[in-house]
Structure formats: C-alpha cells, structure tokens
User: What shape does this take?
Amino acid sequence: MTTAELLGTDPGWIIGVKAVLVFGICVISTLMAVWTERRVLAKMQLRTGPNRVGKFGLLQSLSDGVKLALKEDIIPAAADKVVFIIAPIIATAMCFMSFAVIPMTGEVNLFGHQTALQLTDLPVGVLYILAVTSIGVYGVVLAGWSSGSTYPLLGGLRSSAQVISYEIAMGLSLVAVFIYAGSMSTSVIVDSQHQNIWNAVVLFPSFIIYVISMVGETNRAPFDLAEAEGELVGGFHTEYSSLKFALFFLAEYVNIIAVSALAATLFLGGYHAPPGLGFTEQWLGGWFTFFWFIAKVNLFFFIFMWLRGTLPRLRYDQFMKFGWKVLIPSSLAWILIVATLRVMQQQGANRAVVIAFTAGIVLLLMAVSSLVDRNKAKSQEPIADIDNEAPDFPVPSLPHLRSINVSGGQQ
Amino acid sequence: MSDFIEPRKSSELDINSVPFVEVNQPGPASLLTQAKGFWVTFSTMFKKNQTVQYPDVKAPTAPRFHGRHQLNRHPDGLEKCIGCELCAWACPADAIYVEGGNNTPGNQLSPGERHGAVYQINYLRCIFCGLCVEACPTRALTMTNEYELADDKREKLIFEKEDLLAPLRQGMLAPPHPMYPGMTDTNYYNGDVKEAHPSQQGQN
Assistant: This one.
C-alpha cells in the first residue's frame, strides 16, 4: 500500500490530530532550534550561551517569546495598517503550510489508527512546497512596503529579490530529483530512495546546489545581507515589534526547518534509516523512523549554524552573481546530463554508449576548466602601460597613464 | 613629499576620466583553505570555553585592580585621613567632597590637629583613575578590589565616610579616643604605633 492510499483512509479526526501535531512539532522545534543555535554558535566562539533559564537554558527561547508578546505593539503612523498586520501572518502561515506534505514517519499506529505522520500526500507535493514558499515572499514584500518607511522597503525588496533568485536555483536542483524518482510526490521520492540509493549520492551536484540555495532562500548567514543585524537595522521587519516581530522570527525558523526537512526528504532518504541500520525502523512500532527524520533535519540545521559561525557576509552583487551566473547555469547543465542518462537508461542503451557519454562530459569539463585557467593566467599578467615610477600616494592622472571613461561622455 | 603637490582647483579636475590602476585582487582561496576555516569553528566547539559564570563564580581581579576606595586606619584605630582635601583637588572627575574638622580633646578622630569631618565619594562620577590615592599624603586613601558598584538609586552611589572606612581589626579601638601615650602625629606617620594602648580605652 502506498502512502497516498494509506493516508486516504484517514478519518477526519485523525487528520485534525495530525494537523495539530505538525503545528506543534514546528513550534517546539523552533523553540529548540533557537536555543540550539545560540548554544552551538557560542561553543564555536568559546562562549557558553544561554544557560540560566531552566536546565541548560532550555527555556530561554520560551521566556524570550513571552517577553516579546508582552512588549508594546507599535504600528507606525505612516504604515498601511491592514497590510502591516496581514504581512507577518502570510509569512508565518505559508511556512507552516509547507510542512503538510513532509513525510515524517513510516507506517505507524496513531491512536489506534494505521497511518503515517504526514498530513497529506499530493502527487505534486514538492511543487506545492515551492508554491507556498513563494507566497511566503509576499509576506516579506508587503511588510517592507506597508511599513511606510524607506529602509524596510529597500530591505523587503532585497530580501524578496534574493529569495526569488535562489528559488530558481532550488527549483532547478529539484528537477533532477523528479527525473530520477519519476514523481513529484514526497512519499514516492522517499520510497524510490529506499529502493535504490540516496539521491544525495547519485545526484550529488543537485544536492550541493540545493544546500547552497536553501541557505540563500531562507535569508540566512552568509546570505543574510538584507537583514544584516550588525550593519543594517533589520531589513524588512525594522518597524515591527511585539508579537508581529515574533511571527517573523517564527517564520524564519520554521522556514529553515522546512527547507531542512525537504532536503532530508529529497536527498537523504527521508524518514528511512541510513543504510545498514534498517532494522531500527521497526522499533517503537515504527515511531523510531521519526527519530531518523529529526536527526537528518538536525544535520542540515547544524550546517546552517556552522555556516553562520564560519563565513562572513557576502556583498549583494557577489551574492546575485553567484546565484545567477554560477548556480543556475550549472544546475541547467546538470539537468541536461541527468535527463540524457535517464533517457538512455529507459531506452535500454548499450553500456558502452553510457560510458562514452560520461567520458565525453568529463573531457568537456576538463577542457573548459583548463581554458578558464589559461584565461585567468593571462589576465593576471601585469599591464605594461603602468609605470612603476609612480609614487605610492595619490597623484593626478598623467598623459601616458591609461585612463578609463566612467561616465561615457567625451574624453 | 606631500608638500610638493600643488593643490588643484576643482574646475581643473576631469571628472569623466579616472586613472586606470590595476588592483591586485586574489581570487577565491582554494577549497582546502576554505575547508580549514570550517575546521577552525568545528574544532573550537570542543575546546574549553572562556566564559566566567559571573554571579555564581567570581573570578579574582588583578591584584592592583582599581575598585572601591577605602579610608585606612592607624593600628590603634585612629583614622589616617587628616581632611587635607588633596584627594578632592586631584580628582579629575570632581567625585570627592571633603570637609575637614578640628580634633578636640573630647573628639580625637585622627592623630594631630585635623580630621576629615565629611568624606564623600560619588561613584557616579568616579573614573577609578587612582590620582586621589597618589595625592593622599598619609596613605589614608587606597583602593580595594571590590568592583560590584551598582545600585538602583543615585543617592545610594554617593558613599559616605562610614561606607568607606576600613573595618576595625585586631588591636584597634573605635575612635574617637586620645592618641597613644607619648606619641606624636609624626610617630604615627612613621609607623611607631603598633597597637592601641590600654589607657586609650574608655577615655571619651
């Protein structure tokens, strides 16, 4: 029985219970994620991190949340009130919605009913996730626009430009997964990895592109240039306070967990145990698969923290250049290769042909990279026009020095 | 060198062209170098962290840390402060206020003629520079290592003489009481007085 058929037999109350469970998992994992991030980042900087509220400071984020809720809620006079209030709701709701199609366990017994911890299973599940996260961008744009202030508007536009750009790379990296699994349904993709091998191994370039673009997509370090706490006021949510700010905060972390969960589902075999540990899936009546799911999500969350602890922030133009000129073309090329190999496999091509094709790709790559290297070496040669007698303090331009025209006017 | 450059008028500047200078821009570091950076943060996680759990654990200060002031006493309990106000004059932040008073036979607080009648240090102003300690001619004013100087009222941070006076130690008598028999203030200054004399007790 497929997961879709299994979920089809759910009575209404089980669906309700699962909806509450999914919501609860998201909220609790956000609280835990904030605490974990602060502790792990502190460890990376030889600090301790929050350790005073509750055991090991576990209740720190809860008390921070209560504090945020009790703060004064300010709506600026220049703000568009309705949109100002709707924006954080859109942002948060969409993040939660993307969790609906994530399969979190295998077949389990939930209050006497055989089902799987997955709210629903759509044939186009992954497309649905991409769609709702795109709607989440509206929250960001509208928040920036409705604040009635310049900097939130700029921050909102930057954030949304960033999210949209990286969503393209993300979507393209998923295409290879669809081609390979032959479906867009999350549960079918998980099953196909269980039968074969993890997509992270077969589709390694896709995996890398996805991991990079998921960091860009969630506006996290080193791609957090639109919010940049250290340098800017806070991007699109500058004018937000109290619970509305808390909603954006929640949305950010739920989003991180959602993209991590999607990465685990599409590339690391979802809720299934790692190869060789398959016997653990029967433990606790199948509920142990939830542990594997959480472990994989946490692995990705650790990558988020590690990146934040290690890398400095990118400049906006570097960031956009990387997204549009590196990630998107390379994932397009990779899709072509995957599609060709897939078609060869389905048409029953000769093994020699497949090997020849692969070797050809490798040769082509080597040729291109050597050309790039040669070009780089050439551009690094010193320019003869510049004389070395020039003093090392700024001087007026000399007639024999080459100059470039910056404005396009006449020389 | 820069003296020889003639200042140029802005009208002479050609804003359409700037000198073309090749800047050496190293490309991205090799993958191994970047992986090293990730190793730094990862390995740091397993090192002992440097946080001092402050209110629970109080790390000792450096021995000469400039903390709260203290008005010292002579070994027999008389105050060293003679109310000369040199500390107040030395203070760059104007944090010290002193009023001197005369020692009378019934009210002998310090050896010699004068004592500090009012002595206040305003810790909202004090910058803990220690110039007052350097100025003090009798070594009456020194600094302790105590650094927990925070309160919820401004008034509470103006320390009076009784807040600053050193506690009475073994062999000390609470002033006012007469000077050690046969000793002058110079003897006190030279450290000839080692402890209180029984005759000093109960004479006030």
